[in-house]
Amino acid sequence: MTRRGFLRGAAVIGAFMVVPRRVLGGAGHVAPSEMVTVGCVGMGGQGHIDLFNLLQEKDVRVVAVCDVHREGTGYISWDWMQGKEAKVGGREPARRLVDAHYGELAGGGCRGYADYRELLEREDVDAVVVATPDHTHAVVTMAAIRRGKHVYCEKPLAYTVEEVRRITEAARAAGVATQLGNQGQASEEARLVQEFIMDGAIGAVREVHITVGEPFWARPKWGSRPAERPPVPGGLDWDLWLGPAPERPYHPAYHPWTWRDWRDFGTGMLGDMGCHKLSTVFKALKLGHPVSVEGWCEEIGPEVNARVFEVTWEFGARGDMPPVVLRWFGGGKQPPRPKGLEEGRGVGGEIYIGDEGVLMGYRLVPESRQKEYGRPPRVLERSPGQYREWIDACRGGAAAGSDFVRHSGLLTETPLLGNIAMRAGKKLLWDGAAMRFTNDEAANERLRRVCREGWAL
After folding, report:
1. In the Cβ-directed half-sphere of 303, how many Cα atoms lie within 13 Å?
2. N or C: which end of the chain has fewer CB within 10 A?
3. pLDDT at 361
4. What letter does residue 408 receive in the DSSP assignment?
């Protein structure tokens, strides 16, 4: 019997079993036939955060987890999980957590897998969460979509622009519910920024500055591949971890923490934070494809993503909105101080520069202007929460706020174009519809990658 079959059958046999009231009915009860069954792939730090959140949803049942590491420390090395039972990653800690949470409702227990393909083959789940490193987002997400599964994928949606484009089109064709893991898009602050712009609080916006400091993970100690070849930790399938990336020996320089800095595995700070910081900008200014992108960076090694950089995108006019320039200052680089900003007030966040004023974060500049203006009219529907948006979409509701097709596909392409521009060292002209740069064939090669045999989309 499939897991979905078991959960549906529980409604029939429940009357003949001694089970808790929450199974049989009562306040907050959700019938097993209405449950969204979920398999979680990638049980490191962010994967556990996703899992903790899904376990709070009454109409969700996590039935399977997957990670290439059976059980290991080092996945969760920050304090977001304070108060949780253990700060470790891997499929076994996740499986135990699920079983402990559901208890007798687990339906025979949560299953753990090393290979996501085996999970998809054996488990009749409705939906899949993808929280693996950047370089494997696309293969897992595409495999799930091709089986008709709803997908929640951590940012960025994929490793290359071509992968993003293909996943977006596959999701459109399959009609599945999707959501990118850029949680800020569901926030009150995101709505306020959009409403300030809609209300004309700063006039027509012609420039936006994004400033982000050092990443929260430690700078890698290596600028090129380390020569040492330590043994692969017990319980880790290194070949599966590599997935589509070129083969190389295991080293703790790559896993479990600093993989995002290596070009073969991660998309760097811009890929990590771009889908967070740019989401509201895209919605507030109704952005489409940029027409150009230009980048500069301080290299720290031929195989390692830059930490200090600047990227500039140009966007054309959209309806009654004028062309806009979007500039990103990374790794401690600072934008110009906004006009009117008080002495002693720091510069940070997203800065919208309009013909009639400045919005920094979600407050007008200067603060006296904010106090005079107050809050913009409340015209946008508020979000029930990042995960709730997706679950409601899985159950046939409206598309989630960071749906691949309507928002996060195009959003993800933008920082990935910035990574290419950093390496090109010149202004690149972008034809978004044709998915190509019109003035640099070498840059076009970086829109895609050659995957290891057996791992191509």
Report:
1. 17
2. N
3. 92
4. I
What does the DSSP 8-state code read for residue 320? Answer: T
Handedness of CA 203, 207, 208, 209 (dihedral sign): negative
Q: If you count them, how many residues does the chain have?
A: 457
Contacts of 256 (CB under 8 A, 6+ apart): 44, 69, 72, 74, 75, 89
Domain covering 185-219+260-381+409-445: architecture = 2-Layer Sandwich (3.30)
Give 128's strand partners: 39, 151
φ, ψ for residue 138 (rounded to 5)? Answer: -65, -45
SS3 of 40, please?
Answer: strand
Side-chain-side CA neighbours of residue 215 (13 Å): 21
**303, 308, 314, 315 alpha-carbon torsion, rounded to 10°:** 80
Fold of 3-131: Rossmann fold (3.40.50)
Domain ranges of the chain: 3-131, 185-219+260-381+409-445
Both structure tokens of 15: 């009357």
In angstroms, rounded to a whole number, what is the distance separating the alpha carbons of residues 171 and 148?
Answer: 9
- Rounded to whole angstroms, how far apart are CA atoms 253 and 13? 52
290 residue type, one letter:
P
> Is the predicted pLDDT of residue 76 greater than 80, yes or no?
no
Going across the sheet that includes 60-66, the strands are: 111-113, 60-66, 36-41, 127-130, 150-153, 178-180
pLDDT at res. 418? 98
Band of pLDDT at residue 4, cut at 50, 70 and 90: very low
**Cis before 366? omega within 30:** yes
Residue 229 parent element (H or E): none
| Confidence label for 34 from pLDDT (cuts 50, 70 and 90) | confident
pLDDT range class, residue 215, cuts 50, 70, 90: low
Are 185 and 191 a contacting pair, CB within 8 Å? no
What does the alpha-carbon distance between residue 278 and residue 307 come to, in Å, rounded to a whole number? 18
